[in-house]
Amino acid sequence: MEYNSTRNKLIIAEYGRNVQKMIEHAVSVEDREKRNQLAKGIIRVMGQINPHLRDVADFTHKLWDHLFIISEFKLDVNSPYPIPTEEILNIKPEQVPYTDKKFAFRHYGRNIELMIDKATTMEEGPAKERIIQLIANHLKKSYLTWNRDSVDDEVIVEHLNIMSKGQLKLNENFKFNSSFDILAKTKPPISKNKPGNNNPIKRNNPIKKNNNFPQAKRKEN
Protein backbone atom coordinates (compact mmCIF):
# COMPACT_ATOMS: atom_id res chain seq x y z
CA MET A 1 0.00 0.00 0.00
CA GLU A 2 1.24 3.45 -0.94
CA TYR A 3 0.82 6.43 1.36
CA ASN A 4 0.58 10.02 0.20
CA SER A 5 3.63 10.83 2.33
CA THR A 6 5.75 8.49 0.17
CA ARG A 7 4.36 9.63 -3.19
CA ASN A 8 5.59 12.46 -5.38
CA LYS A 9 3.97 15.80 -4.66
CA LEU A 10 1.07 16.67 -6.98
CA ILE A 11 2.09 19.58 -9.19
CA ILE A 12 -1.50 20.60 -10.05
CA ALA A 13 -3.83 18.74 -7.71
CA GLU A 14 -7.02 19.35 -9.72
CA TYR A 15 -5.92 16.82 -12.38
CA GLY A 16 -5.23 14.07 -9.88
CA ARG A 17 -2.42 11.58 -9.46
CA ASN A 18 -3.28 9.37 -12.45
CA VAL A 19 -2.80 12.22 -14.93
CA GLN A 20 0.53 13.06 -13.30
CA LYS A 21 1.62 9.43 -13.60
CA MET A 22 0.66 9.39 -17.31
CA ILE A 23 2.73 12.52 -17.88
CA GLU A 24 5.69 11.02 -15.99
CA HIS A 25 5.41 7.94 -18.21
CA ALA A 26 5.31 10.10 -21.35
CA VAL A 27 8.52 11.84 -20.25
CA SER A 28 10.26 8.46 -19.98
CA VAL A 29 9.28 7.34 -23.51
CA GLU A 30 12.26 7.61 -25.87
CA ASP A 31 10.37 7.61 -29.19
CA ARG A 32 9.38 11.21 -29.98
CA GLU A 33 6.45 10.27 -32.23
CA LYS A 34 5.03 8.10 -29.50
CA ARG A 35 5.51 10.89 -26.97
CA ASN A 36 3.52 13.24 -29.22
CA GLN A 37 0.67 10.72 -29.42
CA LEU A 38 0.70 10.22 -25.66
CA ALA A 39 0.68 13.98 -25.06
CA LYS A 40 -2.42 14.46 -27.25
CA GLY A 41 -4.17 11.62 -25.45
CA ILE A 42 -3.30 13.11 -22.05
CA ILE A 43 -4.64 16.51 -23.19
CA ARG A 44 -7.98 14.86 -24.04
CA VAL A 45 -8.12 13.26 -20.59
CA MET A 46 -7.28 16.55 -18.89
CA GLY A 47 -10.09 18.24 -20.83
CA GLN A 48 -12.59 15.58 -19.72
CA ILE A 49 -11.68 16.15 -16.07
CA ASN A 50 -12.79 19.80 -16.28
CA PRO A 51 -15.57 19.86 -18.93
CA HIS A 52 -17.10 23.03 -17.44
CA LEU A 53 -14.04 24.99 -18.61
CA ARG A 54 -14.37 24.07 -22.29
CA ASP A 55 -16.21 27.31 -23.05
CA VAL A 56 -13.40 29.36 -21.54
CA ALA A 57 -11.27 31.23 -24.05
CA ASP A 58 -7.90 29.57 -24.80
CA PHE A 59 -8.94 26.48 -22.82
CA THR A 60 -6.78 24.15 -24.93
CA HIS A 61 -3.83 26.51 -24.58
CA LYS A 62 -4.23 26.34 -20.82
CA LEU A 63 -4.25 22.52 -20.90
CA TRP A 64 -0.97 22.41 -22.85
CA ASP A 65 0.64 24.86 -20.43
CA HIS A 66 -0.47 22.68 -17.51
CA LEU A 67 0.89 19.61 -19.28
CA PHE A 68 4.40 21.09 -19.37
CA ILE A 69 4.13 22.45 -15.83
CA ILE A 70 3.16 19.02 -14.44
CA SER A 71 6.06 17.44 -16.31
CA GLU A 72 8.32 20.01 -14.60
CA PHE A 73 9.21 21.20 -18.13
CA LYS A 74 10.88 17.87 -18.94
CA LEU A 75 8.39 16.74 -21.60
CA ASP A 76 9.82 17.18 -25.10
CA VAL A 77 6.90 17.12 -27.55
CA ASN A 78 5.45 19.21 -30.36
CA SER A 79 2.97 21.75 -29.02
CA PRO A 80 0.49 23.86 -31.02
CA TYR A 81 1.26 26.73 -28.64
CA PRO A 82 4.47 28.38 -27.40
CA ILE A 83 6.03 26.15 -24.77
CA PRO A 84 6.30 27.90 -21.38
CA THR A 85 9.55 27.90 -19.47
CA GLU A 86 10.21 27.67 -15.77
CA GLU A 87 11.89 31.08 -15.79
CA ILE A 88 8.82 32.81 -17.22
CA LEU A 89 6.53 31.03 -14.77
CA ASN A 90 8.56 32.16 -11.77
CA ILE A 91 8.86 35.82 -12.74
CA LYS A 92 7.80 37.97 -9.80
CA PRO A 93 5.33 40.78 -10.50
CA GLU A 94 6.57 44.33 -10.29
CA GLN A 95 6.13 46.05 -6.98
CA VAL A 96 3.08 48.31 -6.87
CA PRO A 97 4.20 51.88 -6.18
CA TYR A 98 2.51 53.58 -3.26
CA THR A 99 2.33 57.30 -2.77
CA ASP A 100 4.29 58.77 0.10
CA LYS A 101 2.11 61.86 0.23
CA LYS A 102 0.67 62.50 3.67
CA PHE A 103 -3.06 63.05 4.09
CA ALA A 104 -4.15 66.33 5.59
CA PHE A 105 -7.37 64.67 6.76
CA ARG A 106 -7.33 60.91 6.31
CA HIS A 107 -11.07 60.46 6.89
CA TYR A 108 -11.86 62.33 3.67
CA GLY A 109 -9.88 59.87 1.56
CA ARG A 110 -7.45 60.17 -1.32
CA ASN A 111 -10.02 60.75 -4.08
CA ILE A 112 -11.33 63.98 -2.61
CA GLU A 113 -7.77 65.32 -2.44
CA LEU A 114 -7.32 64.51 -6.13
CA MET A 115 -10.56 66.36 -6.89
CA ILE A 116 -9.32 69.39 -4.96
CA ASP A 117 -5.98 69.33 -6.78
CA LYS A 118 -7.82 69.19 -10.11
CA ALA A 119 -10.15 72.06 -9.13
CA THR A 120 -7.21 74.30 -8.29
CA THR A 121 -6.01 74.05 -11.90
CA MET A 122 -9.36 75.08 -13.43
CA GLU A 123 -10.01 78.52 -14.86
CA GLU A 124 -12.13 80.90 -12.83
CA GLY A 125 -15.79 80.81 -13.76
CA PRO A 126 -19.18 79.23 -13.00
CA ALA A 127 -17.91 75.69 -13.65
CA LYS A 128 -15.10 75.99 -11.10
CA GLU A 129 -17.43 77.63 -8.58
CA ARG A 130 -19.90 74.74 -8.96
CA ILE A 131 -17.13 72.18 -8.52
CA ILE A 132 -15.98 73.89 -5.31
CA GLN A 133 -19.54 73.81 -3.96
CA LEU A 134 -19.88 70.10 -4.75
CA ILE A 135 -16.57 69.37 -3.04
CA ALA A 136 -17.61 71.35 0.04
CA ASN A 137 -20.89 69.44 0.39
CA HIS A 138 -19.05 66.16 -0.14
CA LEU A 139 -16.62 67.09 2.65
CA LYS A 140 -19.57 67.72 4.95
CA LYS A 141 -21.15 64.40 4.00
CA SER A 142 -17.88 62.54 4.65
CA TYR A 143 -17.46 64.32 7.97
CA LEU A 144 -20.95 63.25 9.06
CA THR A 145 -20.09 59.66 8.20
CA TRP A 146 -17.68 59.67 11.14
CA ASN A 147 -19.50 62.14 13.38
CA ARG A 148 -23.26 61.84 12.96
CA ASP A 149 -24.11 64.21 15.80
CA SER A 150 -23.36 67.55 14.18
CA VAL A 151 -20.82 69.51 12.23
CA ASP A 152 -20.05 73.20 12.09
CA ASP A 153 -20.02 74.49 8.52
CA GLU A 154 -17.09 76.75 9.46
CA VAL A 155 -15.06 73.62 10.18
CA ILE A 156 -15.69 72.35 6.65
CA VAL A 157 -14.69 75.73 5.20
CA GLU A 158 -11.45 75.61 7.21
CA HIS A 159 -10.69 72.05 6.07
CA LEU A 160 -11.29 73.01 2.43
CA ASN A 161 -8.94 75.94 2.83
CA ILE A 162 -6.23 73.72 4.35
CA MET A 163 -6.57 70.95 1.76
CA SER A 164 -6.51 73.38 -1.18
CA LYS A 165 -3.73 75.45 0.40
CA GLY A 166 -5.97 78.50 0.28
CA GLN A 167 -6.64 78.26 -3.47
CA LEU A 168 -10.34 77.31 -3.31
CA LYS A 169 -12.81 79.79 -1.87
CA LEU A 170 -16.55 79.41 -1.46
CA ASN A 171 -18.91 82.16 -2.58
CA GLU A 172 -20.16 84.34 0.26
CA ASN A 173 -23.78 83.44 -0.58
CA PHE A 174 -23.14 79.69 -0.62
CA LYS A 175 -25.16 77.58 1.81
CA PHE A 176 -24.25 74.03 2.72
CA ASN A 177 -26.76 71.21 2.51
CA SER A 178 -28.35 70.77 5.92
CA SER A 179 -27.06 68.00 8.15
CA PHE A 180 -30.63 66.74 8.52
CA ASP A 181 -31.03 66.23 4.76
CA ILE A 182 -27.65 64.51 4.47
CA LEU A 183 -28.33 62.15 7.36
CA ALA A 184 -31.85 61.43 6.11
CA LYS A 185 -30.45 60.19 2.81
CA THR A 186 -27.94 57.90 4.53
CA LYS A 187 -30.33 56.42 7.11
CA PRO A 188 -31.06 52.70 6.78
CA PRO A 189 -34.61 51.93 5.63
CA ILE A 190 -37.07 51.52 8.48
CA SER A 191 -38.80 48.17 8.55
CA LYS A 192 -42.56 48.36 8.22
CA ASN A 193 -43.03 45.17 10.18
CA LYS A 194 -44.15 45.63 13.76
CA PRO A 195 -41.84 44.32 16.48
CA GLY A 196 -42.71 40.82 17.53
CA ASN A 197 -44.77 40.13 14.45
CA ASN A 198 -43.54 36.75 13.27
CA ASN A 199 -45.79 36.65 10.24
CA PRO A 200 -45.87 40.12 8.62
CA ILE A 201 -47.38 38.80 5.40
CA LYS A 202 -51.04 39.76 5.09
CA ARG A 203 -53.43 38.15 2.69
CA ASN A 204 -55.11 40.44 0.21
CA ASN A 205 -58.22 38.32 0.05
CA PRO A 206 -58.80 36.75 3.44
CA ILE A 207 -61.10 33.77 3.39
CA LYS A 208 -64.29 34.46 5.28
CA LYS A 209 -66.77 31.96 6.51
CA ASN A 210 -69.80 31.85 4.22
CA ASN A 211 -73.01 31.83 6.24
CA ASN A 212 -75.31 31.90 3.20
CA PHE A 213 -75.40 28.14 2.92
CA PRO A 214 -77.21 26.05 5.54
CA GLN A 215 -75.13 23.63 7.51
CA ALA A 216 -75.59 20.03 6.50
CA LYS A 217 -77.60 18.10 9.05
CA ARG A 218 -76.19 14.94 10.45
CA LYS A 219 -78.15 11.94 9.26
CA GLU A 220 -79.75 10.09 12.10
CA ASN A 221 -80.24 6.37 11.99
Short recap of the structure:
With 221 residues, the chain is an all-alpha fold. It is 44% helix and 0% strand.
Q: What does the secondary structure layout of this molecule look like, with pairings?
A:
Layout: H1 16-28, H2 32-49, H3 59-70, H4 86-89, H5 110-120, H6 126-146, H7 153-163, H8 179-186
Instruction: Determine the fraction of residues in helical runs and give it as a percent range.
Output: 40-55%
Number of strands: 0
Form type: elongated
Average of per-residue pLDDT values: 80
Rg (CA only): 36 Å
What is the helix/strand order? HHHHHHHH
Taken as a percent bin, the fraction of beta residues is under 5%
Secondary-structure-based class equals mainly alpha
Please count the helical segments: 8
Report the biggest beta sheet as strand number plus sense, adding barrel if it closes.
Answer: none
Terminus-to-terminus distance: 81 Å
Give the number of domains: 2
- The residue ranges in which pLDDT falls below 50 over 5 or more consecutive positions are 197-203
